[in-house]
TrEMBL record:
Entry function: Part of the ABC transporter complex HmuTUV involved in hemin import. Responsible for energy coupling to the transport system.
Assigned keywords, A-Z: ATP-binding, Nucleotide-binding, Translocase, Transport
Family listed: Belongs to the ABC transporter superfamily.
Domain ABC transporter: 6-241
Keyword field contains Transcription: no
UniProt source species: Rhodoblastus acidophilus (Rhodopseudomonas acidophila)
Protein known as: Iron complex transport system ATP-binding protein
GO molecular function: ATP binding; ATP hydrolysis activity
ATP-binding in keyword set: yes
Amino acid sequence: MDEARLAAHAVGFGRGGRAILEGVDFSFGPGELVSLLGGNGAGKTTLLRILLGLLAPLRGEATLGGAPVRRMNRRAFAEQVAYVPQAHVAPFPYRAREIVALGRAPAVGLFGRMGARDAQAADEALAMLRIGHLAERDYTTLSGGERQLVMVARALAQGARLLVMDEPMAGLDYGHQLRLLGHLRRLAGQGWGVLMTTHHPDQARLASTRIATLVAGRIDSDGAPDAVLTPETLRRLYGLEPGDIPA
Ligand SMILES: Nc1ncnc2c1ncn2[C@@H]1O[C@H](COP(=O)(O)OP(=O)(O)OP(=O)(O)O)[C@@H](O)[C@H]1O
């Protein structure tokens, strides 16, 4: 199990002489749904990009199963870790099944032909998220919540066991936020590992197995949701004073 953890070790990053991340030690792995909380500009997206090997840290390193991600073959990395983008409107009216099958690109090669096995993997992923009925639908006609689930299905079809998501609940109504969290929690229960950033501590508390907080580029706390989300942590995260919180 430990083999597949995605980790940051003493990671530091900066731009223009300004520190963005400092001494960040963090990891997640199979069976976990970890929410990364932090105010605007705290460094969440920067940390995700470093974990994904898209950005080289100035100090420290990111590893997958102990191997430096920056030196890993991208296809080998994609077989283990999927980045789930925020749902967006595709420029062309692909069917949902086709969008999901695109997740198979690491398996079929970017310009390879999609075979029956790929279509089957796409259908299995859609079924796992209980959206099989959307397979033939034009992706551009789906609601934001449905599109986000299609994006998760695409990551599942890719075969990766670790999912990394940047604000997956942005733009979703409360119902779709909770539904998405329910799916992610279920995936964690089945052995997937999920890391997501969010601006919704309450939802994070409901669904996460663990919560980590970033304050000014440093990990401020990391642990069980109820232990992390104290009034004191919320003050450091969002500048909230006890009187600001409805009693
Ligand atoms: N390429 C860059 N050049 C200069 N500054 C950058 C660059 N990328 C990020 N930053 C700065 O680094 C800080 C952290 O940005 P990051 O996007 O990681 O924060 P975040 O926690 O994801 O924020 P948000 O919740 O607002 O999306 C911000 O102050 C941002 O302006």
